[in-house]
Structure formats: structure tokens, C-alpha cells
Design brief:
CATH class: Alpha Beta
Strand order of the largest sheet: 3-2-1-4
CATH architecture: Roll
Structural class: alpha/beta
CATH topology: Diaminopimelate Epimerase, Chain A, domain 1
Strand content: 5-15%
Number of strands: 4
Shape: globular
Largest sheet: 4 strands, mixed
Distance between the termini: 11 Å
Radius of gyration: 15 Å
Order of helices and strands: HHEHHEEHHHE
Number of domains: 1
Helix content: 40-55%
Length: about 160
């Protein structure tokens, strides 16, 4: 997949919409959401047999999504070549949200992505994650924005 392929699926307006949706979302709960897009796995990782899930956990660490005061970070990782969504939640959230709920969100997003509806899928996923976090991780009195809301494009 060409290194620029993400631009077709996620033009500037879509990245702006994701950024705004995450910002609004984080006022309703105590979590922090990051959105990462990677065109495809680097060849070295493919040769090592690294799965999309393993790569998502690595990205979770590299982006320091775990580095929030209440261990409340959630990463939405898109492996664009496979239209694969992986959701990785920090330990403060995993004890409160059933893994099946994350999988349902990922499936909703993947279905939209397969239809080429990247903005709709991304915003639907953010909305569903926001609902889960609002139910299970309500905001405290002090709710700083600890992680960047802008989607990150992982380039190789």
C-alpha cells in the first residue's frame, strides 16, 4: 500500500472531524482517546509474524496512551491495509468495560470502513467509545485533556 493511501481515506476534513469528536467526547467522561492510522504493517513486523493487535499494543506504548493520571487512555488503532480496528484500553478502564464491548465497537467501524465510509465509521466508533466511557468512567471534578486529540498518522 502506498505511503500516501491514508490521505484518500482520511482527508484533512475527516481528520478535523475526528479531532473535534474526540475533544467533545472527552468532556463527557474521564477517559482519554487517541486515534492512530497506519497504512500497513512494516515488512520487518510482517516477517516477524506480528499481528495487528500486537502492533496496536506497541503503538499504545509508543504514543504513551498509558500515561494518564487515572490510567484512562484508549487507543483506536486502524491498520488501513486490512481495514482492521484494534482498541486498546488502559488498565483503569479494562477492569470496567467488557472486552466484547470493545470488539462490538471495532466491528461497527470495520463495517463502515469496508464500505469506504471512513469518516462515518470513525465518528461512530468514537461515539460508542464515549458512551462506554461515560457509563463506566464518569468525569471527576477535575478533567484535564491529557492526550492530544488529533489523529496520528504512523508513517514508515
Amino acid at each position: 500500500m502506498p505511503s500516501w493511501a491514508w490521505r484518500h481515506a482520511f482527508p484533512q476534513a475527516t481528520l478535523d472531524a475526528i479531532d473535534a469528536a474526540i475533544g467533545v467526547s472527552e468532556t463527557a467522561h474521564g477517559g482519554e482517546i487517541r486515534f492512530a492510522i497506519e497504512n500497513c504493517l512494516p515488512a520487518a513486523l510482517v516477517w516477524r509474524g506480528i499481528s495487528g493487535r500486537e502492533r496496536a499494543i506497541e503503538v499504545f506504548s509508543n504514543l504513551r496512551v498509558w500515561d494518564t493520571e487515572h490510567n484512562s487512555g484508549v487507543l483506536i488503532y486502524l491498520l488501513l491495509a486490512d481495514r482492521d480496528i484494534e482498541i486498546v484500553a488502559d488498565r483503569g478502564i479494562t477492569s470496567r468495560v467488557d472486552p466484547a464491548a470493545w470488539e462490538a465497537v471495532a466491528q461497527t467501524m470495520e463495517a463502515a470502513f469496508r464500505q469506504g465510509e471512513f469518516e462515518r465509521g470513525a465518528l461512530a466508533g468514537i461515539g460508542r467509545i464515549s458512551d462506554l466511557l461515560a457509563q463506566n468512567f464518569p468525569p471527576s471534578g477535575h478533567n484535564p485533556d491529557e492526550l492530544a486529540n488529533r489523529p496520528v498518522i504512523l508513517r514508515r
